[in-house]
Write a structure and sequence with these properties.
Elements: H1 5-17, E1 19-21, H2 22-29, H3 33-45, E2 50-52, E3 55-57, H4 68-73, H5 76-87, E4 95-98, H6 102-110, E5 117-121, H7 124-130, E6 136-140, E7 144-146, E8 151-153, H8 155-161, E9 166-172, E10 175-176, E11 181-184, H9 187-198, E12 200-206, E13 218-222, E14 228-231, H10 237-246, E15 249-252
Parallel strand pairs: 4-5, 4-9, 5-6, 9-12, 12-14, 14-15
Antiparallel strand pairs: 1-3, 2-3, 7-8, 10-11, 11-13
Length: 254
């Protein structure tokens, strides 16, 4: 299809935010819900967007993540804001896990000036960032290195993580479903993240707005296993009530 000007703007809005409700689109463009639904239907039939109940998102695979280099630039400003908000809550002298992901790498950059941290990571990019901080004791997990993003995964990594009990486990995620399921793509990475959750006194999740209603194949955990969520925009209404029921404190980065 060749989108008309309004449909092109709608498509750009979806790509900008990752996912957005039909109501928000109608308000943004000053049209009726019926008009938005008709536009979304046409765009979905062309494979340009994917629909979910009450909204629309960018189409994505449930089996394979976006390429790492693309993820580095995607929503970079949002990830930096999330990272600064989280870093402001981390006290000097804390112990942390930081797992794989471009958002956790942003968190590492925001923590460089902290003092007395002990950080354990299975992400060589995080290790590179924090190795420049003389005030941080850095511990890198053993295991198999994924060449595509320099993440460390596998059973050896899981066993390594299980040696520690830290103050805060900071994890990224590929998708959050409306029922509270947290999902990712690589079962080996998921197993490490599960170990991080189990070995953390508090678990803080970092996720930009594009992660809401984004599908992925492997179930990692449920939001009721998370203590705090740091994001860049107010979650869709159905997520707000779900997070409240799960007892998750969520914070929108300024």
């Amino acid at each position: 299809m060749t989108p008309n000007p309004r449909q092109s703007q709608l498509l750009e809005a979806v790509r900008e935010q990752g996912s957005i409700s039909v109501e928000a689109l109608a308000e943004r463009f000053g049209v009726t819900l019926q008009t938005v639904r008709r536009d979304v239907q046409r765009l979905a039939e062309a494979g340009l967007v994917a629909r979910f109940h009450g909204g629309v998102r960018v189409p994505s695979s449930t089996t394979e993540n976006i390429a790492y280099r693309q993820r580095q630039t995607l929503h970079a400003d949002a990830k930096a804001r999330i990272a600064r908000a989280l870093a402001a809550e981390v006290p000097d002298g804390a112990s942390l896990f930081l797992n794989i992901g471009t958002t956790t790498e942003a968190v590492a950059r925001a923590l460089v000036q902290h003092k007395g941290l002990r950080v354990i990571t299975n992400n060589l990019n995080v290790a590179t960032i924090l190795s420049d901080s003389p005030q941080c004791e850095l511990i890198v997990a053993g295991g198999a290195v994924r060449t595509r993003d320099r993440g460390i995964v596998g059973e050896a990594t899981v066993e390594f993580i299980r040696q520690f009990k830290v103050d805060i486990g900071v994890i990224g995620i590929s998708g959050i479903e409306a029922d509270g399921t947290l999902r990712d793509y690589d079962y080996r990475e998921v197993n490490v993240a599960r170990a991080i959750i189990a070995q953390s006194r508090a678990v803080w999740l970092v996720a930009d707005r594009s992660k809401f209603n984004r599908p992925a194949m492997v179930e990692l955990a449920h939001v009721d296993q998370i203590d705090r969520l740091f994001t860049d925009a107010e979650p869709p209404p159905e997520f707000g009530s779900m997070l409240e029921e799960a007892g998750v404190e969520w914070q929108v980065a300024p």
